Structure formats: C-alpha cells, structure tokens
Amino acid sequence: MKLNEQKALVVFSGGQDSTTCLFWAIRQFKEVEAVTFNYGQRHAAELEVAAAIAAECNVKHHVLDLALLNQLAPSALTRSDVAITEHSDQPPSTFVEGRNMLFFSFAAVLAKQIGARHIVTGVSETDFSGYPDCRDVFIKSLNVTLNLAMDTTFVIDTPLMWLNKADVWRLADELEVFEYVRDQTLTCYNGVMASGCGECPACKLRNNGLQQYLHMRMAKQTNDGVTAVIKEVTS
Ligand SMILES: [Zn+2]
C-alpha cells in the first residue's frame, strides 16, 4: 500500500506536548489519527484524557496495549511503590529505558497499516531531562531504521524538538489552542489535570514554562502597545 503524504499518526498521551503536536498536525495534514500506549501508567486518567481530547478533535484514536513495558522496566511512572526522584547526573526514576524506541516502532507498524506517511511526536531535545531517546540524533536514526525495516518512506515529524517549555506554550498560542491546552491536558505525574499538583517534576517543568511564556507575552503586548502609540504620535 502506498503511504498517504497527507496523513499523519500522532503519538499521543494527552499531555501538553503531544496535545500541542496533535493540533499542529491537524493544521498540517488532511487526515490525522492518534495512538496512545497503555502501559500501566500510574493514572488511568491519562488514557481517559487522551480519548476525550481525540474525540473532541474528531480524530480516530487507537489505544495499544503495552503492558509488557511495566514488566520490563518498572519505574516511578508505572509503579506506585517507586518514588519519583531527581538526580542531576542521571535520568529521573520515571525513565523507562528504551521506551520511545518501542513506542515509535509500534506506531510505525500502525502508521503503515493505516497508510500514514507521517508519524508525529512531541519529543524535545531542549528539555530532554536525560532521556537519550528524546534526542534528535536518535529520532533520525530510528527513522532510517524503520524505513529499512518496512521498506517504506516514513517521515517522523518532531515539531517540538528545539523548543523549550515556554516555546511550546507559544506554539499552542499560535495554533489558537492556548487555553485548551492549559485547561484540558494532563502532564502531572500525580494525575491532576491542567496546572496539576504543582509539586512533581512534570508540573514544575510545565508551570515554569507557562510562567516564562506569560511574562514574554505580556512584555510583547506592552512593547506592541508602546510601538502603536509612538506610530500614532509620529504619523
Ligand atoms: Zn504534578
């Protein structure tokens, strides 16, 4: 089957990043579907949030069962008895070794079945928090490998690769979904919607980025306002 250049499969968790990517893909491609992996996340709420967003966006939503991941790499994301900790010299305990390689490989199998040439993911090297499989070099390498493995011409799109968290908020704003992403997504490790528990590493990253973006936006609005006044006075 020939892959459709105008069709994309978004790797989707219902969090800030992948939701922003979903909206990006909807603007970019004629046909969009989404895939969420069920791997025994701490909070089943993640799956419900992802399903709800996909339904609201009229996007076909696939859920693939990857429970074996929990068996292979128990971590703080999947086991409530493992505490979430952070060390500056190593990946956080939420790290599931090799997760993205598995996710994107399964996504590629599905993408080929539905005829989608594009696979979209919200990975970012900027805020990669020590996850080696969020790096651009890994994505490019896997892209080549998948094409060789399936004799095809997939393109893995990573619209957030070089964006920090504040930039991701800006992108959501540019896509006119800032409020939606702020209020309807789930990023928190403790399963709290929107701005979250405020305490876990995911919440801290998300909320710091949001504050940073809001400051930037306010500064720009003030700047634009001043420029407009100067224009008026001098014309
Ligand atoms: Zn949290």
TrEMBL record:
Record-listed ATP binding positions: 12-22
Protein origin, superkingdom: Bacteria
Cofactor: record remark: Binds 1 zinc ion per subunit.
EC number of the protein: 6.3.4.20
Catalytic activity entry: 7-carboxy-7-carbaguanine + NH4(+) + 2 ATP = 7-cyano-7-carbaguanine + 2 AMP + 2 diphosphate + 2 H(+)
Role this protein plays: Catalyzes the ATP-dependent conversion of 7-carboxy-7-deazaguanine (CDG) to 7-cyano-7-deazaguanine (preQ(0)).
HAMAP family registered for this protein in UniProt: QueC
Similarity remark: Belongs to the QueC family.
Complex formation: Homodimer.
Protein name, entry field: 7-cyano-7-deazaguanine synthase
Organism of origin: Paenibacillus yanchengensis
